[in-house]
Every structure is written in C-alpha cells, then in structure tokens.
Amino acid sequence: MVFTTLEAFFKAHPKAAVAFSGGVDSAFLLWAARQYGADVHAYYVSTAFQPAFEHEDAKRLAEELGVPMTVVHTQILANAQVVTNGPDRCYHCKRALFHQLCQHARADGYALLLDGTNASDDAGDRPGMRALRELGVRSPLRECGLTKAEVRARSKEAGLFTWEKPAYACLATRIPTGMSITADLLERVEQAETALHGLGFYDFRVRVTQEGLARLQVTEPQMARAFAERQAIEQALKPAFPAVLLDLTARKASE
Predict the structure, then answer these.
(1) Residues 31, 119: Cα–Cα separation, whole Å
(2) For the segment 131-188, what is each residue's pLDDT rounded down to a tens digit?
(3) How much is the CA Rg of the chain, to the nearest whole Å?
(4) Which of 42, 76, 80, 133 is most buried (most C-beta within 10 Å)?
C-alpha cells in the first residue's frame, strides 16, 4: 500500500517502534507517531560511534514528547566486519545494529520497526539502506515523499528543538576506508569535535587522515574564521591530534 501522508501511515500502523537517533528525521517521525495516536516506543542504540550529545538530545526529546525510550547498548567494535572498515562497513554496521533493535522491539511486543530515512536520502549511495530492506524496517518519511527540507520546516512548526540541528553522521565516517576503527581513534575524534564546538564552530567534521592527523572541514561561511583562528584550533585539538589540516574545499552546509 502506498501512503501519501504520515497520518495515513500511522492509521494503518497504529503500533510501532522507532529507531531513534535524536536527529532531525527520527525526532520528527517520533513526533508524528505520537501526534497521530500511535502506540509508539523509541529505541536508541548506544555504540562507540555515537557521541554523548546525541544520547542527551534523544533523551530530552523523548521526555518532551512523553514517549518511552529504551537504550540498547551494542558492542559494535566486536564486529570484525565493521572494525576492518571496508567499503561495505556501513552495511554490516547497520545490519548488526538494526537486527538487535528488531529483537528488542519484538520482545516488547512491537512487530514493526521504523527508521527516519527521508526522501532526500539517495538509496543508491547508502549501503545501509540495503540492510534495512533485508530486515523489513520501514521508512515512513521516505515512503510519504518527505524531503529533509520539509522535515525541518514541519519540525519547526511542531516546536521541536531538533528542527535546525545540523545533520550528523556517526563517528565512524571520520575514519578513511581501510583504516581500522579503534575505540581510541573514535574517542579522539569526539574529543576534537567537542573542543571545536566549544570554540563556537558548527556543522563541521574532523576527519582522520591516513597519517593519523586531523583534517578539518567547515562550511564556506566559517572558512575565514577557521583560518583566522587557526592557532586556537590547533591548541584545542592538540590533546587529540599532533597536527590539524584545514580542508580548503568548503563543506556543504547540512540541509
């Protein structure tokens, strides 16, 4: 069945679990489920790939919406197919995490698991989507044709604090393909990004080079400031990385 609105989707599926990251998309999906009267339960998966602020945001929104949230702890670094960080790392990671979420949801009486993939996400460029299809996970935002821009606009109308939150990919994406993912490397990336946020930067990435250095990507409006404050940035990131490189190719602002 094809659904054109979230209201129609939740009328047809009045009981569902939501894989909840605390980001823009899953936050709006959780709000919509609540808004349209669904019996909904949020599941937040906690791994070494998620920074602490994501958990805090998820907890805050679930409490504001009055939706119960279960935190599922997963030792993703015990998965060899993930830590070797090959080209299909995202597929193996997503399949492992969502398999565990499905098990928890079903044990709690929720046969349907939803995720926040939207219509702007390119399925051809996201191997993780293949894992979702294999596990039977549904993506109502995508099915109803809601783009990232529409999700943000509707989130703002709904009064969700997440409406202007920058898109945030997991920490594993900061490590180049082929370089093994370790807990130490992830902690250093999170430490560096927390330090940059403390300096007032936003919507950026600290990526690791093959040599183990930090490569900073910022949006065009922040480029001049990053160059002007390079010494402060170097000092802030020094505890985590021996050197910091500024990528002169501006990062595209998150939708």
Answers:
(1) 18
(2) 999 999 999 999 999 999 999 999 999 999 999 998 888 999 999 999 999 999 999 9
(3) 19
(4) 42
Whether 113 and 99 have beta carbons less than 8 Å apart is answered as no
Q: Which residue has the tokens 């979420």?
A: 101
Which helix or strand (DSSP H or E) is residue 214 part of?
strand 214-217
Q: Tell me the backbone φ, ψ of residue 175, rounded to 5 degrees.
A: -105, 130
Q: What length does the chain have?
A: 255
Which of left, alpha, beta for 136 (phi over 0: left; psi -120 to 50: alpha)?
A: left
- Judge residue 126's burial from the number of C-beta atoms within 10 Å of its C-beta, 0-12 exposed, 13-18 middle, 19 or more buried: middle
Low-confidence ranges of the chain (pLDDT < 70): 1-2, 122-126, 254-255
Q: Which two tokens stand for residue 138?
A: 């549904």
Q: Judge contact between 138 and 113, C-beta under 8 A.
A: yes
Q: Give the residue among 136, 166, 135 at the shortest CA–CA distance from 25.
A: 166
Beta-carbon contacts of residue 227 (< 8 Å; ≥ 6 apart): 246
pTM: 0.92
**Distance of alpha carbon 102 from alpha carbon 18, whole angstroms:** 10
